[in-house]
């Protein structure tokens, strides 16, 4: 008697698995190619099963993807400058990691975990002694988002004629650090 190998039970669907699969599609094929049907196929479930975890459907998915790359938190550092620098670097990495959802990060207003992360950032900088921490956080966010947008644009990620897009650009790292230094100096005055 030949015994058949036991079939592995399917991995249960979760919000985290849905977001991970959606990020994979968006980063590999672009946001336009991310449909609920394609996401269902990637997860090996009916598209309707996704709505159990994201009742508002595609809108909730877009919010969750934006949150995933913008709800960045860092530990409080001894000075507000060090905290701000750590947050900017971590935010940049989160955005660079998922260029497919950069457009969402740039256009979705901060909600949920992102709004909490921004509030925490303001509190950390204020606790670190920065007088107008809320204005500083808006300025730092604008710098990070803008620099990553330029970096992704120059990387060739969205160009269909580019075979291999540049994930790491030493020049971009230097430009980012120079800009961050100048910004932090400006916020001190």
UniProtKB/TrEMBL annotation:
A Pfam family this chain is assigned to: TetR_C_1
Highest taxon, organism lineage: Bacteria
Keyword annotations of the record: DNA-binding, Transcription, Transcription regulation
Keyword Hydrolase: no
Molecular function terms from GO: DNA-binding transcription factor activity; transcription cis-regulatory region binding
PROSITE patterns tied to this protein: HTH_TETR_2
GO biological process, one term: negative regulation of DNA-templated transcription
Protein name: TetR family transcriptional regulator
């Amino acid at each position: 008697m030949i015994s058949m190998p036991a079939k592995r039970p399917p991995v249960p669907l979760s919000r985290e698995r849905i977001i991970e699969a959606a990020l994979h599609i968006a980063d590999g094929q672009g946001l336009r190619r991310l449909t609920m049907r394609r996401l269902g196929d990637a997860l090996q479930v009916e598209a309707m099963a996704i709505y159990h975890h994201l009742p508002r459907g595609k809108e909730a998915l877009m919010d969750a993807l934006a949150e995933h790359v913008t709800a960045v938190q860092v530990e409080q550092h001894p000075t507000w400058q060090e905290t701000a620098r750590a947050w900017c670097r971590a935010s940049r990495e989160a955005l660079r990691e998922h260029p497919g959802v950069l457009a969402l990060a740039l256009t979705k207003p901060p909600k949920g975990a992102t709004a909490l992360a921004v509030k925490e950032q303001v509190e950390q900088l204020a606790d670190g002694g920065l007088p107008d921490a809320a204005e500083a956080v808006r300025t730092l966010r604008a710098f990070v988002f803008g620099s990553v947008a330029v970096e992704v644009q120059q990387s060739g990620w969205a160009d269909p004629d580019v075979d291999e897009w540049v994930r790491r650009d030493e020049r971009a790292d230097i430009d980012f650090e120079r800009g961050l230094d100048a910004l932090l100096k400006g916020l001190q005055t």
